[in-house]
User: What shape does this take?
Amino acid sequence: MSVLIFFMALGIFAAALLVSVGGAAWWQGLLLALGVYLLLHVLYLVALYLAALTVDREKPLEKQVAFCRDGCGRVIGALNAYCGLKPRLIGLEKLPEDRRFLLVCNHRSMFDPCLVIDRLRHWNIAFVSKPSNLEIPLIGRIAYASGFLAIDRENDRNALRTILQAADYLKRGVCSIGVYPEGTRGKGGELLPFHPGCFKIAQRAGAPLVIAAVRGTENIRKDLPFRRTEVTMEILEVLEPERVKAMSTNELSDYTRQRIEAWLRETAA
Assistant: This one.
């Protein structure tokens, strides 16, 4: 939000100079302010992209590109603001402060990871996502430099490679990792079957498993552009590494799904 305010201030300053010194009409000043505001957004994205060019996408990250990681949070925070998110976060005090962790949550909208990246920025969570998301021009390279990973669910060998890489990020403290075990979004907001393999990330890394649930993000698109959307996310439970290792991936998947299902029933309107 501070970046948006800075961009807005520069736009207003440029407009004020044009009107007061250049003698332009007020509407010309307004157009200039808007133009400067939009141009600064573009230049910021270009700067992030140039920073991301320092990373070889064919190799695992040694560490995140700090400018890209910070910029990713700021850009997504701006997107959330433009789209009218009104988030309510519950249970953040449960999140580990001294260790990286695997966050698992239900998936209802493209805004689910946006909410986490923005509002849980302190915990530095990057997501495992479908390959097409990391192939988006400009955005994909910035995301990779921020710690995001692509998983090919159609190829078991490639999927395992991503799981091991994500576990390595946790072990080396590069970032925490977020996954959506459903793999995709249900069209009606229903909870889809889980893919147990993603729970191997926490097992391989010896990391805590954070179980979270969200509702409301599915309403954002239909509320645009005139209404703000109330979104609730709650941290339900944190399973310690010892408990994670003692359970099979199927048991972890079933237990996580049951916790999220119960929360969705309890919080249903």
Remarks:
- Residues 1-52 form one domain.
- The CA atoms of residues 4 and 78 lie 7 Å apart.
